[in-house]
Structures are given as C-alpha cells and as structure tokens.
Specification:
This is 4-hydroxy-3-methylbut-2-en-1-yl diphosphate synthase (flavodoxin). InterPro entries: Dihydropteroate_synth-like_sf, IspG_bac, IspG_bac-typ, IspG_C, IspG_TIM, NO2/SO3_Rdtase_4Fe4S_sf. Its cofactor is [4Fe-4S] cluster. It is a single chain. The protein is of the alpha/beta class and 411 residues long. Helices cover 47% and strands 18% of the residues. The strands form four sheets. It has an eight-stranded parallel beta barrel, surrounded by five helices. Strands 13-14-15-16-17 form a five-stranded mixed β-sheet, sandwiched between helices. It starts with 8 loop residues before the first strand and ends with a helix.
Amino acid sequence: MGRRHKTHSVQVGHITIGGDAPVVVQSMTDTDTADVERTVEQIKLLADAGSEIVRVTVNTEEAAAAVPAIYEKLAQQNYHVPIVGDFHYNGHTLLTKYDETARLLHKYRINPGNVGFGNKKDDRFNTMIDVAIKYDKPIRIGVNWGSLDKELSTRLMDENARSEQPKSSQEVLHEALVLSALTSADAAVERGLGANKIVISCKVSRVQDLISVYEMLAERCEYALHLGLTEAGMGSKGIVSSSVAMGVLLQQGIGNTIRTSLTPEPTGSRDREVIVSQQILQALDVRSFSPEVTACPGCGRTTSTFFRVLTDEVDAFLRAKMVTWRHKFVGVEEMKVAVMGCIVNGPGESKHANIGISLPGTGEAPSAPVFVDGIKVTTLKGGNITEEYKEMIEEYVHKTYSPRENLIASQ
C-alpha cells in the first residue's frame, strides 16, 4: 500500500478516523429509525459483523425522537457502537428541536446539496454547525452527485462554457463535487468547528469517477476522507465495483473510513456490506478482521461437492465465532485456515495455513489429513469430518491465542 494521505484525526465516540488510525469500517441501517426495536436489532447485527460505526436516517420528528430510546436499549445490551445521524433537508430543525438526540449522536452527516437554497442554505448549514460546536460533535460533509448543489454546478458549467479551453462535462462535475465539499468544510471551520471535527465524502456511482474525485480531494485537503460508491448495486456487480474503486484508492493511501453500499439481495442480510468492506481491507493487507479461509475452487479431480459444503460451513462457523473471539483472543483475526479438495495442492496449502484440511479427490483414499502449523497431526474419516474439523479449529484458537484479559492486565 502507498504512503497514507496525511489527514486530520477525527474522534467519533471511541473510534478514531484519520491521522495514523486504521481504516474504519462503517455501515448504515435501512430500517425506519422511528421503529426502535427493528433499528436496535439491525444495529446489533451490523456491530456483530464488525461495523465500527453505524449510520441511521434521521428524517422525521418521529425518527429524531426515537434516538434516545435506541441508545438506551443498545446500552442495556452492552452495545456501544458510535451512531451517526444522517440528515437531509430538515436537519437544522431536528437538531435544534431534539436536544437529547443532538447530544447523543456521535456524528452528524450533512449533505450541502440538500440543506437549502440562497440565504436559507447558509442559515440552515450554520445552524447545524452551531449544534455540532455546542455538543462538540464531528460532522461528515457528504456530497452526492445525485443531489449536487445546483447553484454551484450551474455556475461552474456556465464558466466552463465561456472558457477558451472548456473542459468536459465530466471534469466539471468532478470539480463541482470537490468544490462543494471543500467549500462547505472550510465554511464550517470559519464558523468555529475544528478541522479535526470534519470528515469529507464525495459519493458517485461509477468507478473511474470515484477514483478521479478522491485523487483531487487528497491533493487539495487534509480533511479525513470517507470512501464508497453510492448506489454500488446488487450482488457481484456492487461488490466488484466497490472493491475495484476503493482498492485503487486505498492502495494509494487515500481513504480513512469506508462503506460498501450494496443493495441487499431479496433474501440477503444487511451485514453483507460490512463483510465485503472487511474483505476489501483484508485483501489489501490493510487490516485483518476475520480468519482467512483458503479454499479450493474445484476441478475435474474434485467431483464431490463436499469440499464446497465444508468450506461454506467453516466460513460461517468462523464468522459466528468471531463475534466473541475478537473480544476474547489477541490476534485471532489473523489466523489462516485452509479447506482443500484434492491431493494436488491440498497438502501444500494446508501446510501454509495455521490449520488446514486436505479432502480426498476423485479416486483418492477416503481420508482427510489435517495439518497444524505445517505439521500433520491427524487424519479425519467418516461422516463427522465437518464437526471434528470445527472442534479442532476451536481447540487451536484456545491453545494458540492469548486471552485479551491478559493483555489488558499487562498494560
């Protein structure tokens, strides 16, 4: 990864964004925030998956009024993930009317394109900044190309049309996004909000646009940057687009916090976006979140589907266990696990893992050697291989990784 883009450090609850802090994973609920029970359950789902900050929509008085109850229920269940309030159009009204909500939220997201027009725009924006100053809260200036400041974009288009060397409409759009974000951030600083209280995002839905815009931002500011395609899409399209766009930027050292804005599949879980964000960072060796499973893709030698079933079950087992393991064991997220399907690469890949199993391929002996830190320790056979292998993984974790309480006691 390239040298990190220098940015201010922003504190959001107990999480640090920017500076020398690790890249932070964020997510957003899709519940009606006024529905306290459903919103609490989804925040818990996202937090359990590893989301370090969760954003909720605050769009109505009912939603704003529900925030204190959401915080109370989360605290009762020992969930303390920082919550960001997402404000559009009426944020100035809601933040001033609902003092307890303004006090409790860990950060406010403000879209300068949806604040208002003319003099109202400045007044409403300043009102929200004043609340942030009053309660010592950070903000995210979140520009989106679907709701870009029309006055600004029109002015830039007109200026470009009169230019002797006009730029393409795409270049003008990029400049409008960047200028909207930086102008708003600078205005907040002039109002009295510290630069270390500001995160910037410029959301677009095309890969090359995102890369260009954030390269411009990195050159022109030291504000912390939130990465993510907006409306990335569903399934593989959304995953690939987000991975490519953010991967290119992260490799350049650009980006302090990320969100993968996936459209959930009809039967999919909301926490998928968290898992994909973690996988992007883990694939780049930026951070480790969960044990990495090396798995055989399958070929003519692996006519049995058992290796696929075992891989799926082991992956689900590790993710379920990480909800508690990450709090109990130091370094467990860096564990390497292998599930291989035949003798060609199976033993070799299993030896490279901390714990690996090499299943029999077509025509091979019906046995599965298991390797622990490069050494063969046993051979599993019969119909209970899955449960036996999961038990061995659990045993390895308890024997290998230090309890986190020991680390805390030694500090």
